[in-house]
Every structure is written in structure tokens, then in C-alpha cells.
Write a sequence for this structure.
């Protein structure tokens, strides 16, 4: 009744205005936010903010969130949110470290870890797609269950030391002064963007997330797309955990705790939505992660209490969802 | 007014029957699994079935139970989930600590905590109603902001030893912890009032079908404010129990309880998408969930395995909930 019919009516003629579409789109607003963060950083922290050393620190810290976020974005796009990714990262790093400490070679340890992560992803998919469970609640259950499994794997000491020099060297390789895996994570983000925007699979994922009934009528298998998206999300978290273990040379109880909220807050700032599918894309999500990491780095350089980061992230999150709603997203009531 | 009366005087017979049948089924299932857990543990270790265990279970139930009432109100009215309960609980607990440090009488401490919780709930509702944003995201953000702000204010707090609230947290009454009785009373009262009063029915109506409720003249905005403020009041009261029983606490101390509360609400059959549920079932679901930790200890399993069971139970519960909904809507 009080529907804002006019703006949403205009949104459908947007293909005639590609420039306006881009400027009012989610990538543009997170792009502007990102540039603002860079500007604040340069003015406040000085040139050292953009020095190779500093970017490399941010980059190293961002490798795991970028990879996990790129894969988890597929689940968000298809309209299901996977809250278990943080615990999945913890589980994956604990299992991988445990296998290494038992003398396995890294490749078979990686394979077994990823297969088990996919199995847990399949449980998520069975509950959500098979039984129609509420994604937030079901994956919250998986979050807790995996946390418990991780703690059992880690044993009473609460951590497993599994340093592998080859793996550590691989993970800390730098190219042009930047971490190789950071560049790979950026490349992965760009690849995911291509998949989302340029391939049939990507369009199917967006269609299912945008309106699953319409997608089903158009002959897309909604169930298959959502199962695939949840498996991808678990797979990405598995890879993230293995890289984490490689970076740290150990796994601990705190690994990955709360990571899901940090990643989803950044992804939502970047234009994704955890409540409706079909919006956002990997570039926006990555810019969201970069912007949040930039803010936390600026506060770090200025020796300001890190708690302000969460306050800023919370405010940015509210601003981002408000922007999303003004752009035509679902209003609550 | 006439629309109001139409809603309240003539509740359609069929939904009431379905709701009764639904909660009866949920109740029987909960009693069955709870009894199975108790019997299995007692067979394994006969010394499980003692007053000591009862004390531990009743103690665990108390805080979770009161918070679950708040979460249930949010869920039943269509607000889905309040993820900001930890921040609200700690804020109200801090107020309780500061008030009792100032030497104020116990009723003032309780009132202060409840009011703080209500203000916190009202603050959430303010953003939800005026920015028209989904409660899940708003409370996720306010929890982020709230916990960070709390860390800027304090690192650790504790109620003064020997104060009224301190002795209340440690007292027992009729063989059970004193904090258990207010929880029991509140669940019974809320469970009795919600389906039988005008306000309770309005809340269920909004949660069940917003458009229909609005067409009948129920203000969605007022309902949203009312539910969040009342739910905040329960968070505030839970803070009294929390501050009284917890030793020194820090801003993240309440975060681990969050999942138990959500699991309890879902297991009780209170639909997170709104409009369905019976608050009395919370006693069974929260009781069952609170027995698990003690039971695991008697089975000789480490406390780490507790999360595994809680997580699996939650996944199964929401799967059953989802499956029922799928069958209802062909």
C-alpha cells in the first residue's frame, strides 16, 4: 500500500542507464567508502599508510577473510546464509594441524580436511534445503557443533603445534613486496566476480536468491543451486582454515571464533545482504573487507583502542543496510 | 475498536486447535527426550539422580529461562531474533553492580536493571521502526557496538560481596536456587497471559500475519516498540540473576549463553518467523538443554563435547520445525 512503486518501477529500466546504474549501485557506494578510508588514512596516518610494508601487513591479515568471503558470498547470493564458516575455519585448521602433527604429508592432509568440510557443508545443505530449516538457526547449530568438535580435536591443551617449513615458506612468499596469497585471494575474488556476472551458473545463483519461485518456474533447480552454494561456502572455509594453520604453524581454540560476524559485517558493508539473496557481488564484498581492515589499521597506527573498530563497523553496517533499503531493498514492515 | 473486538472476541476455532495440538506434540516430545536423557544417565551412574544435580540444572535454567522469554516474545511477534541480548544483559548487569556498589536497596537495584534493559530494547526498536531495517541486522550491529562500547567503559565488574544481590544469587529456597523461582513464575505468568489477553493476542496476530493484523487496526510500529521494550525488561531482570550469581564478569561473559537461548526457544516450538508457540514449553526445552552439561559430566565426557550435542540438537530441532512448515504449506 505504501509501496514505493515509482523508484522500483524505474529500477527496471536501468539497463538504459548503465552509468547511473553503476553510480547508484552497491559497488559504487562501497568504492566511495573505500576511497574515503584511504583518504582518511593518508591524511591522518601519513604516507606510511600506503607503504608496501603496511599494505603487506593488511594483506597478510586479509588472505583468509578474502578467500572465505569470496566463497561464502555464493551462499548469500543464492539466499541462504551460512553462519558456520567461522567455526569451519577453526575446525579445518585444527584437523589439518592434527594430521600434520601425526606425520601426514600436507597434500593428503589437505584433501582429507577439505572432504570433511564438504561433508559438514552437506549436513547444512540437508537441513536447509532438504528439510526447509531456517538457514540462520541451522547454521548457528553447525557453528556450535563444529566449535565443540574443534575443541575435542585440539585436546586438553587447547592447541596443536604443527609447523611445516615448506608450507610456511609457501604461504609467506612475496611477489613485488606483497604476499603471494593476498594477490591470489584478489585474483580469486575477480574470478568469482566473473562467474557471478558472466556465466550461466552465476546468473542462476542470482536468480534463485532474487526470487526462488520465479527461478523455479524458469526451470532452474533451486535446490541444486542452494546445495552447491552451501558446499562452496564450506569448501572456502576449509581452504581458509588450512591457510590459517599454514600461516600460524599451529591451531588453537580461538582460531576462527567470531570470524563469521566479522566477514558478514564486511560483506554487508560491501553490498551483500544476509536476508535476501541476489544482491551484492564479490568485488563489493572484497572492498568491504578492505575498508574494514583499513579502518582497523588506521586506528592501530594511531594507537587507538581497537574497540572503536567494532563501533565503526557496527555503524557502517547499519549505514550499509539502510543504503541497501533506499536502493530498493526490502523494508522491514 | 470494533476491529479489535472482532479479533479478540471471535478467535477462529481451527487455529486454536492446531496450536494446541502442535504444542502438545512438542511438549510430549520434549518430555520424552528429557526423560530419556535422565534415565540413560541414571542407569549409567545412579548417583546422577540426586538433589545436587537438581540444584545444578535449576541454576543453569534460571538465567537462560528468563532471557528465553524475551527472545520468545521477539520471535512470536515476528521480530525473528534479538542478537543483542548479550550487550543488553551486560549493560543492565553493570548498572546493577554500580547501583549496589552505591549501597542502594535491592528493589532499586532490580528496578534499575530492568529499566536499563527496557531502554536498550527501546533503542533497538527505534532503529528498527524508523530506519525500517530488519531486526536481525540491527541487533547484530547494536550488539557489536554495545559490546565494544562496554569494553571502553569497564574491563571487569562484580557485585560487592555480601550485598543483597550477592546473597540473593547464592541463596536457596525450598531446596532450589532462589533465582529459579522468579524464572518459574515469569514463564508461567507470561505463558498464561499471552494467549489470554488483548496485548498477547495482538502480538501473535502481528507475528502470524502482518498485513492481516494491520488491516484489523493493530499498529505494527507500536507492537514493535512494545515487544522490544518488554523483551528488554526481561533481559534487564535476567541481568539481576546474572550479576548476582556470576563472579567477576567482563563484557563478553554473556555471549556464550546466546546460543542456548535461541536453541531453547526453537525447541519449545516458538516459531522464529512468528505467530506460533507456547511459552510454557520453555520450561521443558530449557530444562532439557540445561540437563545436558551435567549429564555429560556423569558420562565422563569433557565439557567440550557439550557444544557438539547442543549444536546437533539445534540442527535437528530447526529441521523438524522447517519440515513441519513445509508440510503445512503445500
Amino acid at each position: 500500500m505504501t509501496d514505493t512503486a515509482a523508484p522500483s518501477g524505474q529500477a527496471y529500466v536501468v539497463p538504459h542507464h548503465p552509468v547511473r546504474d553503476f553510480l547508484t549501485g552497491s559497488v559504487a557506494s562501497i568504492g566511495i567508502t573505500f576511497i574515503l578510508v584511504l583518504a582518511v588514512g593518508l591524511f591522518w596516518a601519513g604516507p606510511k599508510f600506503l607503504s608496501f610494508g603496511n599494505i603487506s601487513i593488511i594483506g597478510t591479515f586479509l588472505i583468509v577473510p578474502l578467500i572465505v568471503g569470496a566463497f561464502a558470498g555464493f551462499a548469500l547470493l543464492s539466499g541462504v546464509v551460512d553462519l558456520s564458516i567461522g567455526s569451519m575455519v577453526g575446525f579445518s585448521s585444527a584437523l589439518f594441524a592434527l594430521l600434520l602433527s601425526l606425520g601426514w604429508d600436507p597434500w593428503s592432509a589437505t584433501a582429507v580436511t577439505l572432504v570433511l568440510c564438504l561433508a559438514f557443508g552437506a549436513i547444512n545443505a540437508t537441513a536447509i534445503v532438504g528439510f526447509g530449516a531456517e538457514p540462520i538457526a541451522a547454521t548457528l547449530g553447525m557453528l556450535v557443533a563444529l566449535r565443540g568438535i574443534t575443541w575435542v580435536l585440539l585436546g586438553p591443551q587447547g592447541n596443536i603445534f604443527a609447523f611445516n617449513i615448506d608450507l610456511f615458506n609457501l604461504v609467506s612468499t612475496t611477489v613485488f613486496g606483497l604476499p603471494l596469497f593476498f594477490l591470489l585471494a584478489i585474483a580469486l575474488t575477480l574470478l568469482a566476480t566473473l562467474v557471478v556476472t558472466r556465466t550461466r551458473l552465476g546468473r542462476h545463483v542470482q536468480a534463485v536468491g532474487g526470487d526462488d519461485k520465479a527461478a523455479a518456474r524458469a526451470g532452474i533447480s533451486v535446490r541444486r543451486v542452494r546445495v552447491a552454494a552451501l558446499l562452496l561456502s564450506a569448501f572456502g572455509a576449509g581452504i581458509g582454515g588450512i591457510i590459517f594453520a599454514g600461516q600460524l604453524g599451529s591451531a588453537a581454540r580461538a582460531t576462527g571464533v567470531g570470524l563469521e560476524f566479522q566477514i558478514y559485517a564486511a560483506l554487508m558493508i560491501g553490498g551483500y545482504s544476509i536476508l535476501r539473496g541476489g544482491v551484492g557481488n564479490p568485488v563489493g564484498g572484497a572492498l568491504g573487507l578492505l575498508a574494514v581492515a583499513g579502518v582497523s589499521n588506521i586506528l592501530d597506527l594511531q594507537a587507538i583502542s581497537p574497540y572503536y573498530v567494532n563501533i565503526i563497523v557496527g555503524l557502517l553496517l547499519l549505514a550499509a543496510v539502510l543504503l541497501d533499503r533506499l536502493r530498493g531493498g526490502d523494508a522491514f514492515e | 475498536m470494533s476491529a479489535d473486538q472482532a479479533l479478540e472476541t471471535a478467535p477462529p476455532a481451527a487455529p486454536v486447535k492446531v496450536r494446541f495440538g502442535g504444542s502438545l506434540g512438542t511438549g510430549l516430545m520434549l518430555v520424552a527426550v528429557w526423560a530419556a536423557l535422565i534415565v540413560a544417565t541414571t542407569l549409567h551412574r545412579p548417583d546422577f539422580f540426586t538433589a545436587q544435580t537438581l540444584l545444578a540444572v535449576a541454576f543453569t535454567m534460571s538465567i537462560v529461562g528468563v532471557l528465553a522469554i524475551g527472545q520468545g516474545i521477539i520471535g512470536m511477534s515476528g521480530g525473528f531474533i534479538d542478537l543483542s541480548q548479550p550487550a543488553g544483559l551486560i549493560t543492565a548487569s553493570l548498572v546493577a553492580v554500580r547501583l549496589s556498589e552505591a549501597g542502594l536497596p535491592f528493589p532499586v537495584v532490580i528496578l534499575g536493571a530492568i529499566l536499563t534493559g527496557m531502554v536498550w530494547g527501546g533503542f533497538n526498536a527505534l532503529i528498527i521502526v524508523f530506519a525500517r531495517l530488519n531486526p536481525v541486522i540491527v541487533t547484530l550491529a547494536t550488539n557489536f557496538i554495545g559490546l565494544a562500547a562496554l569494553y571502553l567503559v569497564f574491563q571487569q565488574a562484580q557485585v560487592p560481596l555480601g550485598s543483597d544481590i550477592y546473597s540473593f544469587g547464592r541463596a536457596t529456597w525450598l531446596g532450589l536456587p532462589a533465582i529459579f523461582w522468579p524464572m518459574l513464575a515469569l514463564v508461567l505468568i507470561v505463558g498464561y497471559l499471552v494467549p489470554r489477553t488483548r496485548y498477547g493476542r495482538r502480538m501473535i496476530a502481528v507475528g502470524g500475519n502482518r498485513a492481516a493484523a494491520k488491516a484489523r487496526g493493530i499498529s505494527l510500529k507500536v507492537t514493535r516498540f512494545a515487544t522490544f521494550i518488554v523483551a528488554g525488561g526481561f533481559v534487564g531482570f535476567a541481568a539481576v540473576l546474572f550479576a548476582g550469581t556470576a563472579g567477576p564478569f567482563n563484557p563478553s561473559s554473556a555471549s556464550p549463553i546466546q546460543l542456548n537461548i535461541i536453541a531453547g526457544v526453537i525447541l519449545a516450538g516458538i516459531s522464529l518467523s512468528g505467530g506460533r508457540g507456547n511459552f510454557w514449553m520453555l520450561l521443558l526445552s530449557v530444562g532439557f538443554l540445561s540437563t545436558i552439561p551435567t549429564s555429560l559430566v556423569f558420562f565422563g565426557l569433557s565439557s567440550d563435547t557439550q557444544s557438539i550435542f547442543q549444536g546437533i540438537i539445534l540442527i535437528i530441532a530447526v529441521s523438524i520445525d522447517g519440515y513441519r512448515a513445509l508440510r503445512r504449506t503445500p
The two ends of chain A are 11 Å apart (CA to CA). Chain A has one domain: 5-326. Strands of chain A lie at 159-161, 174-175, 178-179, 250-252.
